[in-house]
Amino acid sequence: MCAPTGGADHCITLPEAPRTSTADVAQMAMDAIVLPAPRPHTSPRGRTWVGLRTFLWIDRNTWRPRQASVAVDGQTVSITGRPTHVDWDMGEASITCQGPGVPHQGTCSYTYRRAASHQVSATVYYAVSWTCVGACDTPGGTFGPLPATTNLRLVIGEIQTSTR
Questions:
Q1: Is 31 helix (H, G, I), strand (E, B) or coil?
Q2: Helix, strand, or coil here: 136?
Q3: Cis-peptide, bond into residue 145, ω within 30° of zero
Q4: Is the pLDDT of residue 151 over 70?
């Protein structure tokens, strides 16, 4: 619609504002979600021994789904990150545990073969999926798996006996 201004007829046509793509809104939701790094634990704590089973676990409160939502241009993207497994780099080998592990027991464990000092890492992998409702150009998708890692120092000693 044009209206006369200042004694002349002028029409100014402004381009339509570009619409935000659903993929961009999904990325905004991805940027908003917090996928926490694990708090790894070992038993024995801080020091273990060659040939002794060392139990591994992360805090259970980190082993739950995390969510975030973002709404832009009539579309709402909801994103969920679910932990799937924990990879442990033990310094001399790596193992995978399907859950968070159990303090001081269970199947998530490792037995060292050599005395050393290692930086051990626990990496939780999150399967991240998203859905969109509203004026979406894509109904949903996935990111990931996405890792979150924490390190700790572990000293592995060796006990020797003599027969005299």
A1: helix
A2: coil
A3: yes
A4: yes
CATH fold of the domain at 18-157? Immunoglobulin-like (2.60.40)
DSSP line for 33-100:
---PPP-EEEESSSEEETTSEEEEEE-GGGSS-EEEEEEETTEEEEEEEEEEEEEEE-SS-EEEESSS
Where are the chain's structural domains?
18-157
Global pTM exceeds 0.90: no
Instruction: Locate 140 and state its tokens.
Output: 């949903």
Q: What are residue 52's DSSP bridge partners?
A: none
**Average pLDDT for residues 57-71, to the nearest whole number?**
94
> How large is the average pLDDT for residues 44-70?
94
Beta bridge partners of 35: none
